[in-house]
Structure prediction request, 318 residues.
Amino acid sequence: MRFKRVHTYGIWFIAGVLLSCGFVHSRTAEEMERGNGKPASEEHAYIGSIASAEENAQDDVLASPTPKVKEKEREGWHKISSKKKYYVKSNGKRALGYTEIDGNGYFFDRKTSFCLVKKWKYVKWRGKRVKMYFDEKGKRSLDVTGKLPKSTRYLLEVNLSDNVVVAYARDGGKGYTIPAKVMICSGGMKGHRTITGNYPILRRAGRWHVLRYQSYGQFATRIRGPYLFHSVTYDRYGNHYSLQAKEYKKLGKSASHGCVRLQVKDAKWIYDNSSRCSARLYYKKNQKIPFPRPKAVKIGKTKDGKYFDRTDSARKAY
Prediction:
């Protein structure tokens, strides 16, 4: 009797389990059929659309162009427009700030890298802050005296070792920060050393001036005592075609008897601005200056063998 009860309960237990599995299976099928309110066909379409979208997205990624690596720019100038150009150095980088190219100075904006045109700019040059002007081609102007007010004061720095004169213009309260002009000269030769020191006052000494050894000079400006700025020497007073060729060809070397010789145009500029000029004369070999080293203009020669200074605007046609 007891065995029959246990057996009966066992049968009912197995039946319950089977019914339960059938019920769960039916619910699962029903849910799959309904799909939370959607037919199975819709559910399959929805799943299919997702798969299709994923495949399309993958195709788009594969079809999109590979980003190009920026090529190294060629060395040299690159022109965007008449007012916009930049320069690429040998290392492939664009020039920035003050840069010298083929003997000319340029300034490249540090943000755009474009060359500065027709503007003044403060530039750091060998640790000094100087003011430079860049012309319509972007080149640094080597003579800015014509762009400054006529009342501008100048300091003439005369290096008697290198035979170079640099005129610095006064920039208001900032001092003499504008390298305005550079001139080649000849200081005193051995045994006739030119004086050194600071000379705050210069004075005109004469349009033509009598010098030593029966020679004459144009546009003489007195530094102190017998020491003058003047042109290269002439054999005849007032004669523009009696230039001493041998002495002219010595410009850039120590060759005078103590004065500072110059080309006529430079002697005239100092003469015309003498009331607003001071001078500092010194000896310092191979000094760096904010200019290329100047050269003398080639001497002129007439058909009959007379010499003249080509920078002499006062001479009449021969």
Q: What stands out?
A: Helices lie at 2-34, 40-63, 245-248, 264-272.
